[in-house]
Amino acid sequence: MTLSRDAAWELLCEYTKGESLRKHALAVEAAVRGYARKYGEDEEAWAVVALLHDFDYERWPDAENHPYRGVEILREKGYPEWVVHAVLSHAEYTGVARETLLERVLFACDEMAGFVTAAALVRPSKSVRDLEAPSVVKKIKDKAFARAVKREDLLAGAEGLKLPLAEHITNVIAAMRERADDLGL
């Protein structure tokens, strides 16, 4: 099967009607693409994985079904097993180890893209364009901000990439700036 970003977007939109979850997928895609460029990897293939990591979440938001229902659909559609494994590995509770660079990048970018979005939206500009890593680090330390985000996941993501937290945040912000208009940021 040839991986297609357009086909991945269509599948995402078929299962995800909510704008915020679609924008989350686009934010994660932007961040993962940024890392694919940084590491000299296949941007399109990595983008497909990023777009599809939560495509089933709106229909099946519980840990019993997500991402398991999604990977059943991916397998039925002929997606390669490395895509399926990457999608499974992004959720801590699946017990699927993050073995590849792509899997570590997806995990690191998933929560961080959401957190960066939240940090941007509370700024007067409501934009990622003037957001810097120190502001995000400060928000991470504020336990009342974006309470649902596990701080240990944000830290573990950067550690998995062997990057200082501020550098990882800077990379994610830079990648999201490239897609700021699409993200509404």
Brief summary:
With about 180 residues, the protein is an all-alpha fold. It contains 10 helices and no strands. It is about 65% helix and about 0% strand.
Q: Please give the share of residues in helix.
A: 55-70%
Provide the CATH architecture.
Orthogonal Bundle
List SSEs in N-to-C order: HHHHHHHHHH
Low-confidence stretches: none
Can you walk me through this structure?
Helix 4 runs antiparallel to helix 5 and helix 7 packs across helix 9. This protein has 185 residues and is an all-alpha fold. The radius of gyration is 15 Å and the shape is globular. It has one domain: Hypothetical protein af1432. It is 64% helix and 0% strand. The chain is built from 10 helices and no strands.
Protein traits:
185 residues; globular; 10 helices; Hypothetical protein af1432
Question: Secondary-structure map with pairings?
Answer:
Elements: H1 5-15, H2 19-39, H3 43-52, H4 68-76, H5 81-89, H6 101-121, H7 133-141, H8 151-160, H9 165-178, H10 180-183
Helix pairs in contact: 1-3, 2-3, 2-6, 2-9, 3-5, 4-5, 5-6, 6-8, 6-9, 7-9, 8-9
